[in-house]
Amino acid sequence: MGTQLREAESGSRYTPTTCFETFPLPWPPGQEPVDDGRVQAIAAAAQELVRLRDAWLNPPGASEAESKKRTLTNLYNARPTWLDHAHRKLDAAVLAAYGWPTGLTDEDILARLLALNLARAGVGLQA
């Protein structure tokens, strides 16, 4: 959920109170068990993803013209194998933090997130 800033060209912004603050993270923000291996696995996978992306975005010795072509949009449109593997590793770590199996479909994940969000809000799912 978000809002649009003036004209469409101005872009959009997310509303933290409705987008981020209500998201059912594995642990409440600020209450992550830092010594938990699941938290450490997420951190390690995220750091590796950032390291790999940064290395692709800013390769040593790249010309200015080459650097201008190296955008996150171009990277994700190309979706090289190393990027896919890094995301799969991060996804697996996050699923483990929730206690969910790997191999869930996007629909399964969204259904589980909705159920978790409603449970935390004290609202039951209506059939």
Give the end-to-end Cα distance, rounded to a whole number of Å: 24 Å
Summed up, the helix count is: 6
What is the element string, with H for helices and E for strands?
EEHHHHHH
State mean pLDDT (0 to 100 scale). Answer: 87
Write down the overall geometry. globular
Helix content: 55-70%
Low-confidence stretches: none
Q: How much strand content do the residues show?
A: under 5%
Number of strands: 2
Instruction: Supply the helix-strand structural class.
Output: mainly alpha
Biggest sheet character:
2 strands, antiparallel
In spatial order, strands of the major sheet run: 1-2
Radius of gyration, whole Å: 18 Å
Protein described:
By secondary structure, this protein is mainly α. The chain has a domain of 70 residues. The chain is built from 6 helices and 2 strands. The protein has a two-stranded antiparallel sheet. β1 and β2 form a beta hairpin. α2 runs antiparallel to α5. The longest helix has 21 residues. It is globular and about 55 Å long. The relative contact order is 0.11. The model has no long low-confidence stretch (mean pLDDT 87).
